[in-house]
UniProtKB/TrEMBL annotation:
<dbReference type="InterPro" id="IPR012902">
    <property type="entry name" value="N_methyl_site"/>
</dbReference>
<dbReference type="GO" id="GO:0043683">
    <property type="term" value="P:type IV pilus assembly"/>
</dbReference>
<dbReference type="Pfam" id="PF16732">
    <property type="entry name" value="ComP_DUS"/>
</dbReference>
<dbReference type="InterPro" id="IPR031982">
    <property type="entry name" value="PilE-like"/>
</dbReference>
<dbReference type="Pfam" id="PF07963">
    <property type="entry name" value="N_methyl"/>
</dbReference>
<protein>
    <submittedName>
        <fullName>Type IV pilus assembly protein PilE</fullName>
    </submittedName>
</protein>
<dbReference type="InterPro" id="IPR045584">
    <property type="entry name" value="Pilin-like"/>
</dbReference>
Length: 149
């Protein structure tokens, strides 16, 4: 009798099935982790932009509206995306007057997920848009109860 070394085809298939089952369970967790990470990145960008708005307010006694299509030189100083570059960001950010108020009195920063100017594929189904106001409100348009830490 000769001794054979190695694995049989059945053993290899069993290992492959187990690996596929583990990968299928890990994929949704990985997706949730990526969404939470990009959401946290957007929240940090909103907080940084609000600090920039407060500095602008202390110098000019008013807030300033900004967006990706801003033409005003001062408005262009505000970063309208959440990540390192617009193409790699998950959220587009705009600053506008709070609902029912003038821009001179209150500004709200809105982070919109997956627009045409950032990663269109990204979706944040739980929280939707993230909103930070100069009045200290932290809001979200989605159904999740806690979108802000």
């Amino acid at each position: 009798m000769t001794e054979r070394r190695g694995f049989t085809l059945i053993e290899m298939l069993v290992v492959l099935v187990i690996l596929c089952a583990l990968a299928a369970q890990a994929a949704p967790s990985l997706h949730r982790f990526v969404v939470r990470t990009k959401r946290t990145e957007a929240q940090a960008a909103l907080l940084q932009l609000m600090q920039q708005q407060e500095r602008f307010y202390s110098q000019h006694n008013r807030y300033i509206a900004f967006s990706s299509g801003a033409s005003d030189a001062q408005a262009k100083l505000f970063k309208w995306w959440s990540g390192g570059s617009a193409a790699r960001s998950a959220y587009e950010i705009e600053g506008k007057a709070c609902d029912g108020e003038l821009i001179e009195q209150c500004v709200q920063l809105i982070a919109m997920p997956g627009t045409a100017k950032v990663d269109q594929v990204f979706k944040d189904e739980d929280c939707g848009q993230l909103i930070l106001t100069s009045n200290g409100q932290r809001l979200a348009t989605g159904a999740a109860p806690r979108c802000w830490p």
